[in-house]
Design goal:
By secondary structure, the protein is α/β, with parallel strands linked by helices. 33% of the residues lie in helices and 14% in strands. It is built from twelve helices and eleven strands. It has helices spanning 37-43, 61-65, 84-89, 105-119, 122-130, 154-165, 176-184, 193-199, 219-224, 244-250, 272-275, 290-308; strands at residues 2-5, 26-29, 49-51, 72-76, 93-97, 146-150, 169-173, 202-205, 230-233, 255-258, 279-281. The strands form two sheets. A six-stranded parallel sheet has the order 7-6-8-9-10-11, sandwiched between helices. The chain has a five-stranded parallel sheet with strand order 2-1-3-4-5. β10 (255-258), α11 and β11 form a beta-alpha-beta unit. α4 (105-119) crosses α6 (154-165). The longest helix has 19 residues, at 290-308.
């Protein structure tokens, strides 16, 4: 098959062990991002299969209508960036392994890294010593503080394990079902949503973005956080109500550590979440490790091969598939 891989910004996949799985295919790897559907369609017009790097490229009806040769989109995890109805209408099979029971440990580790870096002022201290100065301030200890985890899912549970090992107290808030599962597992659930935000030294968000969770974190939630508390988001920017975090950060009352943004790649150096001194930003690298890529793309390439052999797996819109 003619397989096109989008958005491999550092040309990483060719160096990973899993890449050999595509040896039987004609593979094109694109190492930059093309946001314009017309220009992207021209690039990949011969593609029979598109391989996606998570949500880096939106797959819209406009794009799909321009790709008559496309038969398969292969990716991993959730797919809010893909117009599934348009895939079905155009006869494109979407395959995505939802990897139940397998969290992104890379994302969990990055969450902890952001918390540590923020509390110990690591970016500021590095900048200080590199500029010829010595210490630039005094950080804070994590042990004994309360970490509030919003969302009782796989990544949050991995973060909780790391946090407890470091002596943090952990409390939870989630959907009704998530809170019930947390309580059944013997975890501490805050008595109310308001209490969760008001009593957590650190709030870390771990929820999937879907229509029912978009904007789930409100301005009132952020305003309820105590002065000098830390808000961490390694999930999706759309989970926070538009403008709410920027407004709260501008008050300089709380801190934030953010790995996700409404616009990605974010290259506007004047963006308030990049310029505010009380924000630690990173460029959506929560899942970006060689190990995580090899795990994810091994699944994705298996999907390509399964389709090519006539036995597709992880089908999201199986009504499209007809046996050759």
């Amino acid at each position: 098959m003619k397989v096109h891989i989008l958005d491999d910004w550092f040309n990483t996949l060719r160096s990973l062990p899993c890449f050999h799985k595509l040896a039987a295919h004609n593979v094109t790897v694109w190492t930059d991002h093309e946001p314009d559907p017309a220009a992207l369609a021209q690039r990949v017009r011969e593609a029979e299969a598109l391989v996606l790097f998570r949500e880096r490229t939106k797959i819209t009806a406009d794009l799909l209508d321009r790709l008559p040769n496309l038969k398969l989109i292969s990716q991993r995890s959730v797919y809010p960036h893909i117009d599934v109805d348009a895939c079905t209408r155009t006869g494109v099979l979407l395959c995505s392994n939802m990897h139940a029971g397998t969290p992104s440990y890379a994302a969990a580790e990055h969450t902890l890294a952001l918390i540590l870096a923020s509390y110990r002022q690591i970016p500021e201290q590095v900048a200080s010593i590199r500029s010829g100065n010595w210490q630039s301030g005094v950080g804070r200890t994590l042990r004994g503080r309360k970490l509030g985890l919003y969302g009782y899912g796989r990544i949050a549970q991995a973060v909780a394990g790391y946090a407890k090992a470091m002596g943090l107290q952990v409390q939870w808030w989630a959907s009704d079902d998530g809170r019930a599962r947390a309580q059944a597992d013997g975890e501490t659930v805050a008595p109310s949503r308001e209490a969760f935000f008001a009593t957590s030294d650190i709030v870390s968000l771990h929820v999937r973005l879907k229509p029912t969770t978009r904007g789930i974190i409100t301005a009132d939630d952020l305003a309820a956080m105590t002065p000098r508390s830390l808000f961490v988001n390694t999930s999706r920017a759309g989970l926070v109500a538009p403008g709410a975090l920027e407004a709260e950060i501008a008050r300089q009352r709380i801190f934030a550590a953010i790995d996700v943004f409404d616009t990605e790649p974010l290259t506007d150096t004047a963006h308030p979440l990049l310029t505010a001194p009380n924000v630690l930003p990173t460029p959506h690298i929560g899942y970006v490790t060689e190990d995580e890529f090899d795990l994810q793309f091994s699944d994705i390439f298996d999907q390509v091969n399964a389709y090519a052999s006539g036995t597709p797996i992880h089908m999201i819109n199986p009504e499209v598939w007809t046996t050759p």
